[in-house]
TrEMBL record:
<dbReference type="GO" id="GO:0048038">
    <property type="term" value="F:quinone binding"/>
</dbReference>
<keyword id="KW-0521">NADP</keyword>
<dbReference type="InterPro" id="IPR036291">
    <property type="entry name" value="NAD(P)-bd_dom_sf"/>
</dbReference>
<dbReference type="GO" id="GO:0006633">
    <property type="term" value="P:fatty acid biosynthetic process"/>
</dbReference>
<comment type="similarity">
    <text>Belongs to the short-chain dehydrogenases/reductases (SDR) family.</text>
</comment>
<dbReference type="InterPro" id="IPR002347">
    <property type="entry name" value="SDR_fam"/>
</dbReference>
<dbReference type="GO" id="GO:0016616">
    <property type="term" value="F:oxidoreductase activity, acting on the CH-OH group of donors, NAD or NADP as acceptor"/>
</dbReference>
<keyword id="KW-0560">Oxidoreductase</keyword>
<dbReference type="Pfam" id="PF00106">
    <property type="entry name" value="adh_short"/>
</dbReference>
<protein>
    <submittedName>
        <fullName>NAD-binding protein</fullName>
    </submittedName>
</protein>
<dbReference type="InterPro" id="IPR020904">
    <property type="entry name" value="Sc_DH/Rdtase_CS"/>
</dbReference>
Amino acid sequence: MSLKGRIALITGCSGGIGAATALALVRQGCSIAIHYNSAKEKAQALVQTLQAAFPGVIAIIFQADLSDYENVRRLHSQVVDQMGHPDILFNNAGGTLKTIGRMGNIQDISIEDFENTWKLNTGSSYLLTQLCIPHMVEQQYGRIVFNSSVAAGTGGVIGPHYASSKSALHGLLHWIASRHAKDGITCNAVAPALIVETTMMSNPTDEMRNMIPVGRLGVPNEIASIVELLVTNAYMTNKIIVADGGWTPSAF
Ligand SMILES: NC(=O)c1ccc[n+]([C@@H]2O[C@H](COP(=O)([O-])OP(=O)(O)OC[C@H]3O[C@@H](n4cnc5c(N)ncnc54)[C@H](OP(=O)(O)O)[C@@H]3O)[C@@H](O)[C@H]2O)c1
């Protein structure tokens, strides 16, 4: 229970990786602000799971469509009002908007698709982080983790819009990690490859499986355990931890 009493805001908790991470951080003693966008039943089911496993745990759900910055601001203020300032922020929510694949036609991703993907995956994560940092500085403690992707280093299997929205997070985290290291804030990213038991990867193909040296896709717990490491370890900062079954030996 090394995080006993800490408040963790996890975006995208209605998804596979967010839900697994919520469970991992509750096990460490955190209260969880459970964010979702459209899948309210999944968020509610997660609260029930957490409360059944850890009676008395504080887990409150918050809805926000993070493709709109006003909703990001509202999410932050609702969490602060109802739970207090987050000590831990996992910027996990994300989307692909469209998939054109590795051999797709760049003309099929309009500049609007590109910008909207960036807004959801990058801009909103930036804004939420910006909103959380002042309190973390004040208390000289904070943990920030971004959910990137191997696409940031390889181009990936979705398309150029998604890959670039994720690689942009890397420059952002490097700046924050360096700037705020002396404030007790660590800032890192996990970069998964293809993870099943998620809506995003609900129909993996044989081509995808064949790319992975260990011979299978990953599962959400394998990402959650990395986030747990990143938020419990005060000396690990400015890092991008890749979890990809051996797919990208030198991508980062
Ligand atoms: N699965 C993979 O293979 C894989 C690989 C690399 C990186 N990732 C990254 O992992 C993160 C988590 O995704 P996942 O794998 O757990 O997939 P998932 O099951 O599809 O979950 C995606 C989460 O993001 C939320 N979300 C999507 N659009 C949103 C919006 N407009 N506003 C607010 N929230 C939104 C979803 O909320 P609702 O369902 O409530 O709408 C859901 O909670 C994403 O950032 C993704 O890019 C995933």
